[in-house]
Amino acid sequence: MAARYPTLRVALAVAGSLTLLILAFAIHRGWTTNAHSKWARILPASTTSNSYSSAGLQVLQDVFNETLGFQKIFVINLPSRTDRRDTISLAAALTGLKIDFVDGVTDWDERILPPGATEANLGKGNTGAWRAHMNVARTTVEQNLTSALVLEADVDWDIRIKSQMQDFAKASQLLLQPDRANDRMYVSEHMPRMSSSSPYGDVNAWDLLWIGHCGTHFPSEEEKDIGVPAGRVAIPDDETVPESQHVNIQFGNDDLINQYPNHTRVVSRARMNVCTLAYGMSQQGARRFLYQLGIKRIQSATDIMFRDLCDGLAGRPLHACLTVQPQLFQHHRPVGAKSTFSEIANHGEEYNERAFTRNVRWSTRLNYEKLLYGKTDFVDLFPDGEPATDLGF
After folding, report:
1. CA separation (Å) from 183 to 160, 188, 200, 221, 279?
2. Sorted alphabetically, which Pfam families does this protein's record hold (predicted)?
3. N or C: more exposed end of the chain, with fewer CB within 10 A?
């Protein structure tokens, strides 16, 4: 029997090593033993095989890659704002994202401006922003990218962004089904016919995924008469969504808070969106937006022109744009002078005493130190059961 002990010890050691390897792989893939635990959504959540086909599962898994299922992620940043480049580079690295920078624009030849520019009189900041967004659209067209995600350099996101994007992908796939366009649905109750071209739905079926904004509205039932689908997909029990007392709708309205319980995120067609903080653009969408805003006509600030294209206003055709409430990407406001917050808007000379990101619970930027030093007691700016936080801005 004594001769067998070394063999037994070797076997136990091998078994233990295999167990650790399996556990490490499970953590890497985001598997959890309790879907409702606070760890359940920090990494990719598993998807049940009885809900989606193997092909559908593979498409949904693409959101866990380094570009969130898009072909590239572009970040627009002024070369002079090295502070913003530093912070978003670190945020991307800590959440497993690969980003490509596109320079913001501060100078141009007046001859490049499309019709309407003189009448619009946008000013330097708005005109530079317009050209930077058009440069991204043009690059998407030139490189023939299937899709691209565009971020402004001052945005922030939850450290659980990949799990959030998978939920958004399930919802967008549902909304883009022609026979579901006007339905009210819950993401867990319906099985979409999965697209093979994008986790977010057939790239020929959508132009823009407006997932970072300063407010939006749900489409009204009356707008169905002018061709605007009124469907919604609710993502219930989403612990990454703050309770309603913490949700700041900004330039939107209170429908999300009044019509849905706490911890609900809702995907719908975009209506009256403000701010181009983050958006996915298909190749089709890039071509259309480049033509409409870069060549045909310019008449207002970039986000308002995006809104006109999504809403079919100001003589623009209606485009297929989806959005989400609360947004998945939002302005981060660091400690410091408020005058540094924008190159366009005037936020005054006051000092911002507290860093924050509205509607984002486990902010990547507020958790830099936790992520860098391996801590897991993440900063939650909007804890459940507590009164609304006065952010002072």
Report:
1. 28, 14, 18, 11, 24
2. Glyco_transf_25
3. N
192 found inside a domain: yes
The mean of the pLDDT values for the chain is 86
Burial of 277 (0-12, 13-18, 19+ CB in 10 A): buried
In a domain, 313, yes or no: yes
What's the average model confidence in pLDDT over 103-118? Answer: 94
* Contact present, 312 and 318 (Cβ < 8 Å): yes
Confidence of residue 216 (pLDDT cuts 50, 70, 90): very high
| pTM to 2 decimal places | 0.85
- What is the token pair recorded at 298? 């310019």
Burial 176-192 (b: 16+ CB within 10 A, else e): bbeebeeeebebeebeb
Over range 98-120, report the average pLDDT.
95
CA distance 82 to 368: 18
Task: Please report, for residues 10, 20, 178, 233, 293, the alpha-carbon distance to residue 15 in angstroms, rounded to integers and kept in the order given.
Answer: 9, 9, 51, 45, 61
- 8 domain residue, yes or no: no
Q: What sign has the CA pseudo-torsion 345, 253, 290, 102?
A: positive
**Bridge partners (DSSP) listed for residue 77:** 103
CA 216 to mean position of chain CA atoms: 14
CA–CA gap between residue 247 and residue 326 (Å, rounded): 8
pLDDT digits (tens, 9 = 90+) for 204-214: 999 999 999 99
Q: Is residue 370 part of a domain?
A: yes
Per-residue pLDDT, averaged over 360-367, amounts to 98
Task: With CA atoms as reference, report the closest residue to 200 among 285, 138, 141, 289.
Answer: 285
Range of the domain at 342: 49-393
Q: What is the mean pLDDT of residues 251-259?
A: 97
Say how many C-beta atoms besides its own lie within 10 A of residue 320's C-beta: 21
**What is the rounded distance in angstroms from the CA atom of residue 36 to the CA atom of residue 23?**
19
